[in-house]
Design brief:
This protein has nine helices and no strands. The chain is mostly helical. It has one domain. The longest helix is centred in the C-terminal third of the chain and has 43 residues. The two termini are about 40 Å apart.
């Protein structure tokens, strides 16, 4: 599959995720930003399964996926990609992370959805969408698109699902919040990657055609008349 084809496919996935996010956002808005029936069911299920051991486990992705730690991890990944002379991939990851945080934080503040009352983590009314899940998904999808390895996708999927479970197990988010965060992450990552990929392809195409134009312009009058 060519880069243009991969970029187009990623863009289609991005549009689909955006539409799914918009639909979920509409459902939540119609309900007055109150928890959906499935949110109540899942929150009660997590409460019934609460144990000290699993609480410790749940805090691991919650801490690792926090703002400060994720900025540090993102910076290390970007530096590593630059060290490997993959500046376009580094730029893609940087743009995607900045975009997903900016979009998600703004929406969460504007929507102002209340978190579960029994939250063991944050209590600020910025529940929808889940920022932890959105950032985790963004990083996973970008890395998956960059390296194109099945194990990257497998480990990444496990990480995202673990993050979604963690945020609801700690009652920091409703189920619909983490689903929205996942959709936001997929949308941002695929759209940013597709745009950068298509831009790279166009630059490469122009670079291959420019030398031929320069060579033809350097031909002497005798050579031109001979042709």
């Amino acid at each position: 599959m060519t880069e243009v084809a991969r970029g187009t496919t990623a863009l289609v996935w991005g549009v689909a995720a955006t539409l799914a996010f918009a639909a979920l956002r509409a459902v939540v808005a119609i309900g007055g930003h109150e928890p959906l029936p499935i949110d109540h069911w899942w929150n009660e299920l997590m409460g019934a399964l609460t144990s000290d051991v699993w609480l410790v486990v749940a805090w691991v992705p919650a801490i690792v996926g926090g703002t400060i730690v994720m900025i540090a991890i993102g910076a290390l990944l970007i530096v590593w990609l630059l060290w490997r002379r993959r500046r376009w991939d580094a730029a893609t990851l940087a743009i995607a992370m900045v975009a997903v945080v900016a979009i998600g934080a703004t929406m969460a503040a504007v929507i102002g959805r209340t978190r579960p009352e029994d939250s063991l983590a944050e209590s600020v009314a910025t529940s929808f969408p889940s920022g932890h899940t959105a950032v985790a998904t963004t990083v996973v999808v970008v890395l998956g698109l960059i390296f194109r390895r099945w194990y990257v996708w497998m480990l990444g999927t496990i990480w995202v699902l673990t993050m979604m479970w963690s945020r609801t197990y700690l009652h920091a988010h409703w189920l619909s919040d983490v689903v929205a965060g996942m959709l936001e992450g997929v949308a941002v990552a695929t759209v940013v990657w597709a745009c950068v990929s298509l831009w790279r392809s166009r630059r490469a195409a122009r670079a291959t055609t420019e030398p031929s134009h320069e060579d033809s312009s350097r031909e002497s009058p005798i050579e031109r008349s001979a042709t």
